[in-house]
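To close the section, here is one more complete example, presented without commentary so you can practise reading it yourself. The ligand is FE3-S4 cluster.
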Amino acid sequence: MELTCEEQRMLDGKDGKGCKLAMEILVEVGQAFGAERMIPVKSAHTVLSTYKGILDAGVEVLERFVTLGARASVPTTTDPAGMDLERWKEFKVPENYAKKQFQIVKATRALGLIPCWTCTPYLCGLLPQKGDHLAWAESSAVIFANSILGARTNRETAVIDIAAGITGRTPYYGLHLTENRWGNILIDVQIEKMSTDDYNILGYFIGKRVGTKTPVIIGLKKTDRFEDYKGMGAAAAASGGVALYHIVGVTPEARTVEEAFGNNKPERSFTFSDKERDITRNEMCTAKGDEINAVLVGCPHYTITEIKKVAELLEGKKIRKNVRFWIYTYKNVELLADRLGYKQIIEKSGAAITPDTCMMISPTELWHFKTIMTDSGKFAYYAPTQVQAEVIFDSIEKCVHAAVKKG
Ligand code: F3S
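Output:
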């Protein structure tokens, strides 16, 4: 690969051993993908944040970088941690697991990472602009940054993300290049009025149909709930490997269908009408009956608007004794919910806000829930394998209805 003088300095170890190791990793990756050079990145987002995901090997990588004196050179945020960092004991997290998670917290601090512990770093002080190059891991954040913000990032993985944060570089290939961002599959949405759960279902449908290709979506009116794009993208990134979608008229690079396809013809097209919506909704539910043990929402992390909605739905109601109702978000939102009184309403109902983590990357499986209900297309996809539970997907209104005492 062709390196600039500054990048060569890093590779030669002139900026420290940690930076040298990070650059060595990136050069290997770049060579593997045929990148001719590096590109400076505005920010990085790392998934080296949860013990459940990275285990001892990941902790070792982080601590190795600390020992070698590495520091992030561009804003580098952390994905959710592997547990609620304050109330972990209430969530049955084993002591040994917590100890490892705190090792991760300590190492990220030493590396100068921004401890936002969220999969929505774009809501937490790190808002990229159109055309910015990023090195983000976390598929739901990647797809949001590419598709809604018009920034450019590949789906980075653990270790590459931190190496990019340290060097401020990533190999220049994949979605950093304009010609790799054009769409190839047409999705024609034929539903006039899309609800929030319809967006999640659409994302799930798209991921299943297009895999890792880039869909161009027509017929989808602009929504004023940006959370709908957050949920849709997360579902598409989970059920497929979608890292970028174009909604014509919404995605900054898709002002017209022609622009979205780079003037090429679509390889295939799919229709999403009431029929496909209903079939997909059924596919997303694996549970046979309707008895639930838990409602887990906030994947991706809930915004304050979503918390407000769930607080309004729960006001004056009580969650059934044998049902857990947990809402995942990040610390700033929990603080706002407290100031606004939503947290108190939620807690009075028996539900709980649990920040800094989520249902999938904390050891939720230790609760042995048989059936979980969720409003998240992404979590509906992963629940059977990651939490070993059957799943029911539905709207937040239906989730609340199923969890509260009747009468
Ligand atoms: Fe975020 Fe966890 Fe879902 S990291 S996207 S809440 S699986």
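Once you have examined the tokens, check your reading against these statements. The longest helix spans residues 51-67. DSSP finds 15 helices and 14 strands in the chain.
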